[in-house]
Design goal:
The chain has 14 helices and 22 strands. It is an alpha+beta fold. The chain has three domains: 5-221, no CATH class; 360-523, no CATH class; 530-577, no CATH class. It has a seven-stranded antiparallel β-sheet with strand order 2-1-5-4-3-6-7, with helices on both faces. The protein is globular, with a radius of gyration of 24 Å.
């Protein structure tokens, strides 16, 4: 179908608007802070094949999971069995490709008259779906059944409302039943809103026009990706990163290894050499690892391009079975995010080697989440405080890294202190930037932070991170940032450095302190201007010692003033260049 460019562009932007409206509704109807505050989820539209055409919300890589999610639903509910007003629910990663069990999929067919033209879909994290520990994702998990209640694709909503028997089963298996019911109902509402808005768009512009634009949007993104890639020199480059351990054998790191090969207008990403499937919870589904790789490719090749299925059409993958990123059922995958975050950084680094002008240093490592399960919150009900662990982003050719950002999930904010302290029996004792945490370089990595909590009631803490021993790196002469760490500070005992996968009982007055990594540096530190180093010291990002030892800038503090020994600085920097 030939469309005039104005209609094409208007309909494209209207579909993106629909996805954004869905995401807005998702976050503003969520009950749990992990959804309404941290916005750990996304909403979008797909074509009839489940290929994502528009995505809105904080987790853009979800768009590349939609196809498998819709395929899993259709396997049980073929198109001819679906009715207008239906919404389908699942959280089984091996059936609908949600990244881990707490991520719940809700999808609904979009009818125009009697014809299904696509799907509206949301994917959002739930605070607790059962499992070994509050928050569901336990450090001791050894199979998917330890990760919580597995819901196959089920018809959760019809024109008559909720399927009460299904909702009862879900709520009965959660430590926070009211929250999970509210979150899922809000998710259904956001999804059905998408079906209504897309149907109205078809009424306004014609169903054939809308479906044609869906196809053209995917194809134009694929063409744009390939054109940008074609301008790069052909070649191959690799990168490798390590996780501390697999959660079982804590003496041995596990490896993510990627090799990126660019030939003409196609990109191949090869995971040969990646460690075998883990016994512990650090595995990641194949489609999730692919999604992280695609987001990294977009970040390097053209971060302004739309996120849709067109990106997937331009990239080939080599992924041997039975590895950390191609696990076989029933492998646990609850701590998938640090793994795919490392995948993202390895792909970012490999592509930066292929085209150094586009190189970007990796973000800090130590990503993941922490969860604290309380017997009662401020209202007297059981509660789970679930927080995403933020880090800092790496530097690039023209910019320092972003401070306190979500790698890959750049749009998912942290939970505000005011929300935490008003809803849970906890006090945030410290929250501030961490001195000397950033990777040094001509462009400095983003600065890490310190956050310390004191609990006011008995509770269970689960730390679900990684890379407390194996750190991040810099690029093109930039320095690695300081590693993350977590410290348990009991009220009446000695402090204890926590493992990246750990569970601890906490009593009133106990504290836990997280020191999160900064981002990697870009370029040799001695090439950073003296004025920028002075500003970093004045801002509390860099100490006088690091300014001298790493950047070669000799500063003296005299009250509130900083003075520079220009002779010593020139000598130190000349020696570094030599």
């Amino acid at each position: 179908m030939n469309l005039d460019p104005i209609t094409n562009e208007v309909v494209r932007n209207r579909m993106r608007e629909v996805a954004a409206v869905m995401a807005h509704a998702l976050y503003h109807t969520g009950y749990s802070p992990i959804l309404r505050e941290s916005q750990d989820g996304a909403a979008g539209l797909t074509d009839i094949n489940g290929h994502g055409v528009a995505v809105g919300g904080g987790v853009p890589f979800h768009c590349f999971l939609y196809s498998t999610s819709i395929a899993g639903i259709l396997e049980r509910y073929p198109l001819h069995t679906m009715r207008e007003g239906d919404a389908f629910l699942s959280n089984d990663p091996y059936k609908v490709a949600n990244s881990h069990v707490p991520d719940t999929v809700v999808a609904a067919p979009v009818f125009h008259r009697d014809r299904i033209i696509g799907f509206a879909i949301t994917m959002a994290h739930k605070a607790d779906v059962g499992g070994l520990v509050p928050g569901s994702s336990g450090a001791a998990a050894r199979e998917i059944f330890h990760d919580g209640l597995l819901i196959p694709p089920v018809r959760y909503w019809t024109r008559d409302g909720v399927a009460s028997e299904v909702e009862a089963l879900v709520c009965n298996n959660s430590r926070v039943p009211e929250e999970i019911a509210g979150d899922i109902r809000g998710q259904v509402g956001a999804t059905l809103l998408g079906t209504t808005k897309l149907r109205e768009l078809c009424d306004e512009y014609g169903v054939d026009t809308v479906t044609a634009v869906m196809g053209q949007l995917i194809e134009s993104t694929a063409d744009r990706f390939r054109r940008e890639l074609a301008a790069w020199p052909d070649g191959a480059a690799g990168a490798e990163g390590r996780l501390d351990h697999d959660g079982v054998d804590k003496t041995s790191p596990v490896v993510i290894r990627v090799r990126a090969t660019k030939t003409g207008d196609r990109l191949q990403i090869d995971f040969t050499g990646t460690s075998i499937q883990a016994r512990g919870p650090v595995n990641a589904l194949q489609v999730t690892a692919q999604a992280a790789s695609l987001i990294a490719a977009v970040a390097v090749i053209d971060p302004t391009m739309p996120i849709n299925w067109g990106v997937r059409q331009a990239v080939d993958f080599v992924m041997p079975p039975g590895t950390l990123v191609t696990p076989k059922f029933p492998a646990t995958i609850n701590n998938y995010f640090p793994t795919v975050h490392l995948v993202y950084n390895c792909v970012l680094t490999a592509l930066g080697k292929l085209n150094p002008k586009r190189a970007t240093a990796p973000s800090g490592l130590g990503s993941g989440a922490m969860a604290i399960g309380y017997t009662r919150d401020r209202t007297g009900k059981p509660a789970v405080q679930y927080e995403l662990m933020k880090l800092a982003l790496g530097a690039s050719q023209h910019h320092d890294g972003v401070t306190i950002g979500g790698p890959m999930h750049i749009f998912t904010p942290g939970t505000p202190i005011e929300i935490l302290e008003s809803e849970y029996p906890v006090t945030v004792k410290t929250f501030g930037l961490s001195l000397d945490s950033a990777g040094a370089g001509r462009r400095r990595g983003g600065v890490g932070y310190v956050r310390e909590y004191e609990v006011l009631d008995n509770c269970i803490l689960t730390v679900r991170c990684t890379n407390y021993r194996e750190g991040s790196w810099g690029v093109l002469g930039g320095s690695a940032p300081r590693r993350s760490q977590a410290t348990f500070l009991p009220r009446d005992a000695d402090k204890l450095l926590l493992d990246c996968l750990d569970t601890q009982q906490m009593r009133p007055g106990d504290r836990v302190r997280f020191e999160q990594s900064g981002g990697g540096g870009y370029g040799p530190p001695h090439e950073r201007s003296v004025a920028e180093v002075v500003d970093d010291v004045r801002s509390g990002y860099v100490s006088l010692k690091e300014a001298r030892d790493i950047y070669g800038v000799y500063l003296t503090a005299e009250g509130d003033r900083l003075s520079c020994d220009e002779v010593a600085t020139h000598a130190a920097r000349s020696g570094a260049k030599a």
